[in-house]
Each structure stands twice: as structure tokens, then as C-alpha cells.
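Can anyone check this?
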Amino acid sequence: MTSAGGNREAGFAKLQGEDFEYFMQTYSIILGRNRKKEKVDLDISVLGGGTDVSRRHARIFYDFERRRFSLEVLSKKGCYVEGVLHFPGDGPVKLDSQDLLQIGQKKFYFLLPTRSIFATAAIQRAHIATAAGQHTRIDTTANQDAHIATAAGQDAHTVAAADQHAHIATAAGQDARTATAAGQDAPTATAAGQDAHTATAAAKHADTATTA
């Protein structure tokens, strides 16, 4: 089996014959017969269509208004869709998956993907949005962690300052006790001095009494 559309493995739709397959990768394709100055998207004549294939025989396109694929007959020789012969002027013919088409002597099927390619694109967009939401939550968590870390750092500074104040307060308390002790020693020293003066005076009186 040959691939009439080149080495392709995906498309909006596929044309499948006994000996060829063609993937539609655009919204509109022309089927017919190539000539030197003009080429069509799919040359049916070289695939066994014979001389009954016109240069521009038919067009398959996606109808966005009706959301479906259709076939427009361009050749006066007509085109078969599910055994019914259609001619130009009959209007676009609705195409369903597995419809049998015939141009000239060549028969082939029109096939749609199992899952609509438009639905697949919507699912992909949904996954992208979900992933973006997850990243947003991660960034929010990171910001919260950063705030917590900052608060923890501030608490650490506060604790350190509190420790310093505690040391200062302790030292101040020790100095206060030292000053108090010094204050208590001062009266004692004064009393001792007074006792010394008293003893000296007593000695002087004793000397005076002895002399007398």
C-alpha cells in the first residue's frame, strides 16, 4: 500500500483505497488529475481512476458552519457517494465516516478519526490549563514558605535580642547587688572609723589621766 499524501500518519480525515491512503492535513483538498502547470492535492488518475478523471474533479472540505465534512462535485462526469451519482450544481454532499466514494474507475473510503481532532485539541488545552493551575499553586506555596521563612528569621532575631536583653538585665541585677553590698559595707566602714576615733580619744584620755 502506498501513501498518496507522502509519509504522513495523521490528519483531519483519511481517504483509504485498496492500494493507497491519503491523510487530509488541510481543511480543503482538490481531487482530480495533475497537469504540468497545475497540480491537485490528490491525483486520482495515477491511482487507477483512468481517463474519466477530470483535472479538477471534486473538492472535499470541512464545513465550519455545519461542522461536518462535505464533497463538492466539480466535474460534469460526476462523482459517486455511497452509490449515488452527484453532479455539479447538486450542492455539497455530506460525508460520513466510512462513506464509499468513486471518481472515474477508482473507489475509496472517506474515514474520520475515532476521536474528533477538534475534541483532541480541546482536551490538550484543558491539560495545559490544569498544568498552569498546578504551577500557580506551587508558586503560591513557595511564596507562603518564603513568608514563613522570613517570619522565622524575624523570630530568630527577636529571640537573639531577647537573650541580649536578658544578659544585660542579669548583669544589671548583679551590679545592683554589688552596689547594695557596697552600700551595706559603707556604714560598717564608717562605724569602724568612728570606733577607731573613739579608741584614739580613749587612749588620749588615758594618757592624760596617767600624767595627772
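Reply from J.R.: I decoded it. The first strand starts at residue 2 and ends at 3.
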